[in-house]
Design a protein that fits this description.
This protein is α/β, with parallel strands linked by helices. The protein folds into 2 domains: about 170 residues, Mannitol-specific EII, Chain A (3-Layer(aba) Sandwich), CATH 3.40.930; about 120 residues, no CATH class. About 50% of the residues lie in helices and about 15% in strands. The strands form 3 sheets. Strands 2, 3, 4, 5, 6 and 7 form a 6-stranded mixed β-sheet that branches. The protein has a 4-stranded mixed β-sheet with strand order 10-9-12-11. The N and C termini lie far apart (about 60 Å). It binds zinc ion (ZN).
Length: about 300
Amino acid sequence: MITELLYDIIYLMAEILKSHYFSDYLKPSQVIYDLKATNKIEAFEELLDVLLKNKLIQNKQLILTRLIDRERLESTVLAEHIAVPHARVDTGNRIAVAIGRSSKGIAYDSQDKKVHLVILIVWNPVIPGLFNHLFAGLARYLREPEFRTKVINARDRHEFYQVLSEIVISLPKDDRLVSRASLLKKLQDIEVKKRRATGTQLKELEKKASLIREELDHATLTRFDRLMERYGYAVAEVESGVCQSCNINVATVMSSAIEGSNDIYICENCGKFLVASSKPVRDKIRETASKKISKKK
Ligand SMILES: [Zn+2]
């Protein structure tokens, strides 16, 4: 129908208007071609100094602490050799990005898996959506092995900046939520633990939960809380293509996409968030068997 077509065109135009180049957030003075750091804390400090010099942040120590807290919660290695450490701190209505490349590699989570590109992001509490769209845009590019090679193998500072400037970032549509599945699973585990926790343990869990909540968009959180309230859990694992919450086969395309990805999918049948199974199959069978036994009691 004509109206539908018109709607599509308007939508498409809106999408184009929403696109930004990564260079909108990144000046040449915000990149380091070869980091001196040999470990991740040193790398954070080096990049935070860049942000300080560019007057994009004020409290280096506070941000450093937040970055480390966030890493403890879950590693921010996004793709092979690439990490995106981030912290949500008041930056005066801006998003602050600094990027460092390391030819010798930085010991990040372990000695053997070195990181060659560190993208440090600090953003403001009043603009949570911006972080999500920046993160999604970066992930789309950096998951491509060719693009990764191009960035890491840049011959000089100028080429390094040029390649990074090629990244186009567009606001994801509401139904295309990205990169948050493992965080949702973590949040669920924390919420479950919170039910039995008291005192300092509860405080610690609440701190972790709020760190995760800051990174998820409003629509996802609303859905998550509703599911938690109604069913006691919101995230279901997919095993051999079957949703473990409702036992219905998830579309093949979807289940192969879930495996190896960290994107958020929703079961069309029961509405739970879907994540790839994390357990070896044998453990899972044992668990299902014991669940059946306890149900009979
Ligand atoms: Zn389901």
